Amino acid sequence: MTALVIDDSRLARTELRRLLQAFPDVTVVGEARHADEARLQIRVLSPELLFLDIHMPGQNGFELLASLEAAPQVIFTTAYDEYALRAFEANALDYLVKPVMEARLATALGKARARLARPAAVAAPVAEPAAAPLTAQDQVFVKDGEQCWFVRLADVRLFEINGSYTQIYFEQHRPLIPRTLQHLEARLDPKVFFRANRQQIINLKWVESITPWFSNTLKIKLREGPEVEVSRKQSVLFRELLSL
């Protein structure tokens, strides 16, 4: 498991490295003192796990994550405990308050191992990282105004056009992002996410029922979500893709 330590305190980075020596399956591939340095290290080193401080010069840890199109797994490490709820709302693996205790670190790493134990996605060519496809198990950072979330794509049941934005449906949230459905369709796994019509992309794992509809089309009911009418063209494709 490769890790990047992001903290503006040299002493904090050194202490965390020392603690991680007790876990031979964890390799610290780099360090960063602030968000700009971290973005470069993430792009170059592709770590599987971030140990991320919240208070840093310039952008804080939440703002750094909001700037990433796809983020590694995250364990927050901070001297402040008042951000714990926000961190877990952002779907962080764990939240460690400094000074970090080895037992708590071991628990957090156990969560990271469990999350990373899923089958690995096929790697995209190194020369084109921006075009890398996202699997359902990948996490993305979503920001809408002052709110932000760290969302596993498997938990997103619907993408829907809303004006010049796209609305994302997960849990009870409905944030808007400045992305087109065409952009999202190109990044998402077509085995999981299906373009139902000109305005909606559905997560096939959230399908509750399928009903024949007018003119040989289909209507799909999503668990904890709305009904989606599949266009005639996409209904034909849906039957071809998912029939034996």
TrEMBL record:
Residue ranges annotated for the HTH LytTR-type domain, each copy included: 142-244
SUPFAM superfamilies, alphabetized: CheY-like
Keyword line: DNA-binding, Phosphoprotein
A GO MF term: DNA binding
Domain Response regulatory per the UniProt entry, residue ranges: 2-113
InterPro entries: CheY-like_superfamily, LytR-like, LytTR_DNA-bd_dom, Sig_transdc_resp-reg_receiver
Chain positions found as 4-aspartylphosphate: 53
Full protein name: LytTR family DNA-binding domain-containing protein
Organism whose genome encodes this protein: Hymenobacter algoricola
Lineage: Bacteria, Pseudomonadati, Bacteroidota, Cytophagia, Cytophagales
